[in-house]
Design a protein that fits this description.
about 15% helix, disordered N terminus, alpha+beta
């Protein structure tokens, strides 16, 4: 099963737009016919423009490294830090 990226957007309690996102890796092999469900693992979570949680960079799946690098570069360019 391919990995999925979830991006959430909405209006916060102050009536302002807010964007957050979470990136999961669901590429672990599991056999649903044998009662095994793939368990997606969260490795990047953001609220608004800030990183809320990020796993150790050496544990980020290879396919997702460009996503994480882009987020970190945008954070640095906007003075938000990691």
């Amino acid at each position: 099963m391919p990995a999925r990226i979830f991006v959430l957007a909405g209006v916060n309690g102050a009536g302002k737009s807010s964007v957050g996102g979470a990136v999961y890796d669901n590429s672990a092999v599991a056999d649903p016919k044998a009662g095994q469900r793939p368990l997606p693992s969260l490795f990047l979570n953001m609220q608004a423009t800030r990183i809320v949680s990020l796993i150790a960079l050496d544990q980020v799946p290879q396919w997702a490294k460009p996503v994480v690098v882009t987020v970190l570069e945008l954070q640095a360019a906007n003075g938000l830090g990691p």
